[in-house]
Amino acid sequence: MAANRKQDNGNREDGSRNISRRDLLKMAGIGGAGLLLGGAGVGALFKSNQDNSASASASPTNSSYHEEIPFYGEHQAGIVTPAQDFVVFASFDVTASSIDEVRKLFKDWTAAAAVITQGGMLGEDNENLNVPPSDTGEAAGLQPSKTTLTFGVGPSFFDGRFGLADRKPAELQDLPAFNGDALRKEWVGGDIGVQACANDMQVAFRAIRNLARVARGKAALRWTQEGFQRTSGADPSGGTARNLMGFKDGTGNPDVTDAAKMNEVVWTQSSDGPQWMAGGSYMVVRRIRIRVEVWDRSTLGEQEATFGRYRTSGAPLGGEQEFDPIDLEKKDEKGKPVIPVGAHIRVAKENGVQILRRSYSYSSGLDTRTGQLDAGLLFVAFNRNVAKQFIPMQRTLAASDRLNEYIEHNGSALFACFPGVKEGGYIGDTLL
Prior knowledge:
This protein is an alpha+beta fold. It has helices spanning 21-28, 52-57, 99-116, 201-214, 259-265, 292-295, 300-307, 344-351, 390-400; strands spanning 86-94, 148-153, 192-198, 219-228, 281-290, 356-357, 360-367, 372-383, 407-417. Strand 7 (360-367) and strand 8 (372-383) form a beta hairpin.
């Protein structure tokens, strides 16, 4: 435990002094906004994943690792589905000029999604030498790999082009500016959002690539972001995945097997607004860059105080095990809170709001403007009421979370995810 560690007073044995975290931040000119990292994320939608028996069934050598997840159902897959190893998120702008073309797009996407999630090949022209193949082919012969495709529409979808303005949910508004936001237009907004998840990156990429082909002439890609977590095969214990800051990221999500809790936190109800959204959910997507170079120069003590957890075990400070209750009242021998003021888990717990996080790490190479890594978190979360859940939570975190010193939010989007598709129906048929 931290209490048994040798404390560093900031002086090296050679008489020189360590540069403090704040000095480094000042040198780099870094700002940020709340992250929502430590509360939850990938790898812990089910606490049962901590059991060796459960992790064994997720091994890549086991067929269950690659099994098919049904596309049709009461709710869209990819929301309460245990997080797969990889994600490719895509934001589309609609280029169609009529509601009939939009309807055709969603029908075509439905047919394609049903085949993709089964691991099948699209179309019938994959052996004809005289025409372009109807499927891009990179996933030919590969397993379904638990592929899910989750579709939603953004605020701009209801801007009047298709006569749908009166069907726009009151909840579906552009997210407000949060303290410290550094949004860049290349990662903001979109008419349609599609989350493709799978246990194989090539399979997930193929899904978005083919949906973009199917959409040609009706919708065009606006921005994309790939993400990853550690694969199930890399961690035979099935423990909670770690984020790029080295901390376990996925401890506090609500229990997705509790139907009543999901109705409270995730699924929109008939009483919430337009009937077409009943059984759907609001998907928040935030691209959060981590200043990894600065974080890597911070002491372990500073890192643990920032999160409010021990890095190795994931336990809250003052606790023993990862899932121990968070005790905000516990004091050390000097009378100071064991979990410091401003620690991420303290701010999140004091806020008292729940959402369902389903986030992934990302690495997009080198930022040539700064010479530093462009890496961080593709934060994806689902909630029933954005105004009462995500927005107040993020405002609180943006105001006082110690993680703000290491991060910046440079991408943001909100989508209303449709309820599930019934066989014979199509994506968005409750709206269109």
